[in-house]
Amino acid sequence: MVIVVGLPGDMESEKTYTDETARLLALLNNASMLPKNVALLSNLSALPDFKFDYPLEKLPNDRATFLGLAEKIKNSAAPSPVYILFGHGGTQGNTPVFHVPGPRILPTDLTGVAGASPASTWLLFFPGSKAFAAEVQGAQRTVLASEADHIDDSDPISFGLLLDLMKTDSDLNVLGPKLGAATDQWYTSRSLVRAEEPALWVNGQPPRKLVGSVATTTPAPGVLLTPGPIPGTNTITPDVDAAWKTIQPVEARDYPKSDAVILSRHVSLLVDDSEQLTEEEDTFLQILTKEGKRFGDFDFSFPPDEDLTVSACEVRRADGQIEALDPDNIHEATGKAPEGYNVPSQKIFSLPHAEPGSILHVRLQRTQKHFPLPHMFEEVALNGEIPIVALKVDISVPEKSSFHFKFLQQASTDPVISKTTYGSTYSWQFQNIPAAPQEPLSPGGSEPILAVSTFPDWAAFADWYRRLTRESDTITPEIETQARELVKDTKTDAAKIEAVTQFVTNFRYVSIPLGVNSYRPHAAANVLKNRYGDCKDKANLLNTLLKSLGYKTSLVLVPRFTQAYEDLPGFAFNHAISQVDLDGKTLWIDSTDDVCRIGLLPPGDPGRKVLVVNDSANALTELPKPAATDHRVTLEMTVNFPDTKSRTADVQISAQTEGYGDYLLRASAKSWSEQSKIAPLLRGPFYPTSGQFEAKQQTATDVSDLGHNFSWKAEGTWNGLVSQLPQSSTRLLRLACWLPKEWPTALLPRTAPLQLNEAYPMEISESCEFALPAGVHDVKLPSSQHEENAVLSWKLLWTQKSPSEVEAKLELSLLKAELDPASTLLFQASCRHLQDALQDGLSFQIP
Q1: 438 pLDDT more than 90
Q2: Which of 5, 139, 317, 839 could bridge 42 with an S-S bond, Cβ 3.0-4.6 Å?
Q3: pLDDT at position 228, please?
Q4: pLDDT of res. 552
Q5: Are 126 and 85 in contact (CB under 8 A)?
Q6: Bridge partners of 417?
């Protein structure tokens, strides 16, 4: 067998030819397809890293070596050699050529090589293959070519399809029609005009076009490989895919907390010379428990401007047999979207025999049809729900491309760099990666990630984004009319900005733009007409309305709940807000969240490094960081016991809020249904440390009234504040106190970072006045207590104002809300001390 790999024309084709060479050599290693000798003419540097069971000779990939094969084959007396030529072809003047380094191979060159043996089989997959097939075809020769009528400009996709089909067949009479059907289906499924017409030349007869053909009843004299096809249609041997050779199962007892484990994952990103991105992922996953059977179900989503190809769907059962699901049986599903938006497509499938002990193998490739970015920016997750035994990441970029990488939440390691003909490949290998901690209150962006970018710098990114969004903020007559209408009754600049902001904030939020619309806002006039949009659509409309009124505005890209970095330029953003200049001051306005007051950045925004998209943008800007003193909840309570026998108190509560405290209670009020209003609104974000409060009457600021701080009042009864000591007339009264509902969960043991209050520091001030029943005596107050540290500080003070009046005050400051492990321990220690202090109530005697 002779394999000639054409000279790649760019980075992407080099990667494709390398992968196809590896797949072909692995197929030949199958016991039922084992050739006697293989000569490989290739200038590609990479070969599969497994032991071949056949002699493999790697030869220089040039015309002289190819022509010299004639004498070599004649001397070997090979009765029917097989020649496989694939790669890049074209024309030199009017002559079709096959590209190799140096002088190109011509159609007539094949004639001399073919004459070295009485019979031969030829597989020709490159542009111009028709002319080569016509030259070499003849008696006792079988030729399968990617063309029948005309030369296509692009490298054929059908060779990759042929390799898939060769897993279960080697007879060209069967393979040919299957290849025709697969090629036709590939183009049809992508709504593309078919550019390939594979054809079969047999024994000098005219070529038979394979699209729409059926298998012949009389076998052709030549077959691709001997001794014949692999028996069976669903079961294959492990040698079909060489990757199985390196896969070793694990013992379930070594992973007692996991339902499955990833034995091997290989992630490969390829950026070609046009900055187009191809992503491949090859995963072997072993199921360990019955619960792990869920990993046999797959649901891949992808945007409409992306091709997702599943090339391997296999299961190695516990008995060693491998079953394969035909990728052609995996169909796409697409939903509906509002006008001007797209929804992702889906490929959904389930693998058979996904049971404990089985190993699943899925290989997929994502290719952008029209890559929306001028450069690549990607994040590769380094762990997940289950452990990973081995992970390899390859990033291939053209030689002249910029390349930046950064490890997030992981110690940085340098890559192994290998040079290729058209660029460089950066490789990392990781071993025994634990599962990501599944812990509540973990912040976004806390998972280990390898982020990579080919953007030269932030100035280049900003320049691209400015050009991308040009004219999206065009002021139309409709924009001007709407803006004037919104501010006609206002007098101050602040009031005008507030009126326009509230108008845009109330628009319906729609978040399903894909492709380039994942980055570019829709035209402001269209968003105004539709009355819906995503964050950047709404921010752009707000900016345009304000710009029509004479205000200077800018779109701001935000990495909400994550972060952007000065040394990693690229689209690290998942949110957009507005910047407005007012009297020399900067206003940051988020028009997405309808419970966020003007001037407050909602959760996930504060402290993030953002890109302000204006004419001078070339670096990141940091949004203001929140201070606890600006975010408060103030509670005032009166507790009255009608008589000494009463265990139920009459209670009045009022709450005043600022900053995040306002946001917290306003969000609770938004989800506060009429049916549940017997429960106090405060129960949404807080919990009572003793007893239960039942509201009989409640009033609150209207949620949509963003012009005033949110307040709430309630009247009701509180049970469980008083308890009587056994065999005594002494009663114990505990403080009616409210603490954030998430704090008990935050006290659990954890390894992941901790995020409280949606990353907002905060102050809570509570005062409670107790009116004790008449006649009580021997009132004893608990001692005052306090705690101060860098995370959570508090002070609890009891005061007796009269024989029957007692006041308790709690002042609490959460100084940090995004906590590393050391800060988490400080918080937990202070919080536990507070809980203990709240159990020390006052005591009194009853008559």
Answers
A1: no
A2: 5
A3: 33
A4: 95
A5: yes
A6: 426
Residue 750 has pLDDT above 60, yes or no: yes
Concatenated DSSP letters for 211-258?
TT----SSPPS--SSSS-PPS-SSEE-GGGSGGGGG-----GGG-TT-
CB 455 within 8 A of CB 377: yes
Euclidean distance between the first and final Cα of the chain, in Å?
107
Tell me the three state secondary structure of residue 567: coil
Among 20-29, 455-464, 703-712, top mean pLDDT goes to 455-464
DSSP string for 607-662: T-EEEEESTT--S-EEPPPP-GGGSEEEEEEEEE-SSTT--EEEEEEEEEEETHHH
Those residues whose C-beta lies under 8 Å from the C-beta of residue 463, and which sit 6 or more positions away, are: none
Q: 373 Cβ partners below 8 Å, 6+ apart?
A: 275, 464, 519, 571
CA dist 406 and 425 (Å) reads 16
How large is the greatest C-alpha to C-alpha distance in the chain, in angstroms? 121
Say if residues 595 and 668 touch (Cβ distance below 8 Å): no
CA distance 338 to 348: 23
Structure tokens of 226?
A: 């001997």
Contact, 151 vs 128, CB < 8 A?
yes
> What is the reported pLDDT for 222?
43
Token output for 318: 């516990």
Q: Tokens at residue 91, please?
A: 């024309």
Q: Closest by alpha carbon to 363, among 294, 238, 268?
A: 268
